[in-house]
Specification:
This protein is mainly beta. It has a 5-stranded mixed beta sheet, with no helix packed on it.
């Protein structure tokens, strides 16, 4: 199993997180860390710019 290692930062803060994923992450993905949800604003190599999301709304088509 391949693991992908990432470093993430939050806009306008010095907070950085390190984490791994079983799938590659791309711009506009939404990721969950425990009860917190983050939107991937941009991806540069293994560096992600994250934005916290308040809630997710379920939409069906």
């Amino acid at each position: 199993m391949t693991m992908f290692y990432y470093k993430g930062a939050f806009r306008e803060t010095d907070n950085v997180i390190y984490f791994k994923s079983e799938v590659p992450l791309v711009q506009h993905d939404v990721i969950l860390f425990g009860e917190r949800t983050y939107f991937i604003e941009s991806v540069e190599k293994e560096f992600l710019l994250l934005e916290r999301v308040g809630s997710i709304v379920t939409v069906s088509v």
